Amino acid sequence: xxxFARSTTGVEGLDSILRGGLPANRLYLxxxxxxxxxxxLALQYLREGVRLGERCLYVTLSETADELSxxxxxxxxxxxxxxxFELAAAEEVLGDGRHQSVLHPWEVELxxxxxxxxxxxxxxxxxxxxxxxxxxxxxxxxxxxxxxxQVLSLKQFFAPRNVTxxxxxxxxxxxxxxxxxxxxxxxxxxxxxRLTLEFGAARRRLQVQKLRGxxxxxxxxxxxxxTGGLEVYPRLIAAEHHTPFAGEPVPSGVEGLDxxxxxxxxxxxxxxxxxxxxxxxxxxxLQYVTAALERGERCCVFEFDERIGxxxxxxxxxxxxxxxxxxxxxxxLTQVDPADISPGEFAWTVRKAVEExxxxxxVIDSLNGxxxxxxxxxxxxxxxxxxxxxxxxxxxxTFLVNPQHGxxxxxxxxxxxxxYIADAxxxxxxFEARGRIRKAISVIKNRGGGHEDAIRExxxxxxxxxxxxPLERFRGVLTGTPEFEGDSVKLLDERxx
Length: 497
Prior knowledge:
The protein is of the alpha/beta class. It has helices at residues 12-17, 38-51, 65-74, 90-94, 110-124, 134-141, 144-158, 180-185, 255-260, 281-294, 308-317, 323-328, 343-355, 367-372, 380-393; strands spanning 6-7, 22-23, 27-32, 56-60, 82-86, 128-132, 164-169, 188-195, 203-211, 220-226, 229-233, 270-276, 299-303, 331-335, 361-365, 397-404, 412-413, 416-417, 424-433, 436-446, 456-461, 464-470, 474-475, 483-484.
């Protein structure tokens, strides 16, 4: 391999963060507390080497061969093609013809241990080596200076041999703190973390601490440990994903609704549908989805709150049967559990839907569920803003459903104002007239162009979505406490055509 060659890790997201993989023939540190996913990532790295036809060696000082086989089997893998060097097994350490039942790491002098590893490397001549873990070397060394000298000697031993080495450290030594000297010795450092929330699944994240000579994607990146290995979700950077597109209006197929935004929201913009529960927000979003499907555009709906079955039943009652579009693959309805998904994973899912499956219109229902997936409030708007910016750069039309508290409510969620992140805002309200609760709809913002400033009655029934004349004889409709002024007013009746 040339000095500029890359050693891919076998984890798509991590390779993306590393801008193509680890620079080959260098020494790297993979660190993290027990349970953070280090062994799984190390095995994926070696399996990728086997797939590429490289010779791979796993040096294990902490786990037995049986334990490693169990880890691999839990992901549906085998260790075929990976040379395993286990110090706890005498046959592996001393070779055939030597008689000793068990040789534990703490029974071997450090110098002898290093020598045995070097002999194994010389015999196998691998291009990828995983050394798991450094905590056992610390125990053998008994002295910090001697330990660091041996790590340095390992680096010098591997340097001329065209080997990419992954040192695994579980941070169990020196009070669980990171070793700054070890960081400086290695060409790159990858840190894994496992976080336990008050409710829901444990969250994992990854950070590349350093990588010499590479403009990697810095910061924390969410990840998940699933059957099949570690999945890493790179932090989304919207500015890197611009695609030219025509910003024409996106119609809903309902004349009155399209008139509110002078033809519809523009492509590459986000529209916030905000109002109290039951005011018609999701139904209006589904109307835009149905119209897009009829034009042959691929659509994605991410449901954080409502069950998909309920959504399909409701849509069919309004005359929009979505099941055929699901069967054809034109529509993707995804049920999202905010307790089990991280914001980074959601952003990665959105990115795959757009880049791999060509999604042109996307609905997030609702923002309450999305924000519930991120306990750290300081990052909520930054994450959401980056996702929306990415969708805008890709020319995707986005609808955000924002259920407000009470019958009046405000455009904030958990004391966080979400109104500024949207390009257009459609406001839904209830009002009372002639002894009935009615719905009103209006547009209060549209960055993409002009919009109607009237407040109209909204009717949603078996005839679909209809809009009435402007509510000119009412005052205070948007406050939730309207007052009628005048002798008569023309309202939509449920029996009218």
